Amino acid sequence: MVGYAFMGAAHSQGWRTVGRVFDLPLNPVMAAVCGRDPAAVRAAAGKLGWAAAETDWRALIARDDVQLVDICTPGDSHAEIAVAALEAGKHVLCEKPLANTVAEAEAMAEAARRAGDRGRIAMVGFNYRRTPAIALARLMVRDGRIGTLRHVRVTYLQDWIVDPEFPLVWRLQKEYAGSGALGDLGAHIVDLAQHLSGEPLVGVSAVTETFVRERPLPGGAVVGLSTAAGGGAARGAVTVDDAALFTGRLACGALAAFEVSRVAAGRKNSLRIELNGDRGSLAFDLERLNELYFHDHTEPAASSGFRRILVTEADHPYLEAWWPPGHGLGYEHTFVHQARDLVHAIAAGTEPEPSFADGLQVQRVLAAVEESAARNSVYTPVLPALVQEAS
Ligand code: SOE
Asked: Is 117 within a domain?
């Protein structure tokens, strides 16, 4: 694994747990974790359960005891590490968003296609697909339980940077993160809208905003009395969006509405999605992630309405390995399920979902959102690979 911050810790929990809960065809071994600071990465190895520590990702992918590279770094290093690992014959799991640009994502998808010819697997870490309630919703949409899709409505709201004095961390700098709430939160909900509907977004209209345009540098770096504010911590420019609102059309003709924000005061990690079809609707709220709400419009109006499905039955996705009905799961279990599905794909030699091609499609939507927002919200097509190659 490369990187050991929040996502590294969440992935480590997945790798520590997966073999002790699911019956797997292969046994994942946590061979080595990589980070630039020698003391910090050694401490992380001990705390997170990795057998060794490396300080250069090139040395990590050169190790003979490493067959799978799990990339948990900021987006600016995803392409370089993933392409090198795939070309070195390793399987790859890469955190979302796949990359910071469409060009990088295209290179990664092409490297994954070539590696696939050599039996190597590449997955992108849209972990919310592996919430049992979301996986159940996908099956219900596929089985026609809501009929012909008309609407998808998704929001993903956080509030960790409402305070203008929150420092200028890497997620707020385009050179590291590629974009702000759009790539960090928007990638998840674009993927979910496409995954649940089974349809790609074909065009979007968007607005984005950066409400706080300058923040203190991390670590309270003081540059003497010469700072603009006449002293105190130096401040730097925020180069990414704080929020984005966009509408879109799915290939099937359904309309989709998206909202992402990191300044929605009071919303901590609030991902909500609703799908409306001509036979019913499904609704999910990450803050109640063991529940799926279903409205069957074919029922008599007098007794119909959204009802709660408690997604904890043994025959619900992933639940066969956990507890009796009613004993709910949490955020961390999505990473255990992600590890399970990746191990099965590696053992079977099948392309996992979401693939790097799925990650590239999301990257194309994000790019169309940014292009639309830069051009007064003009409706902007999401260029599929086919058109891309033709142009
Ligand atoms: C921060 O916004 C973050 O950690 C995202 O980067 C994750 O993808 C999301 O699952 C939780 O919030």
From this structure: yes
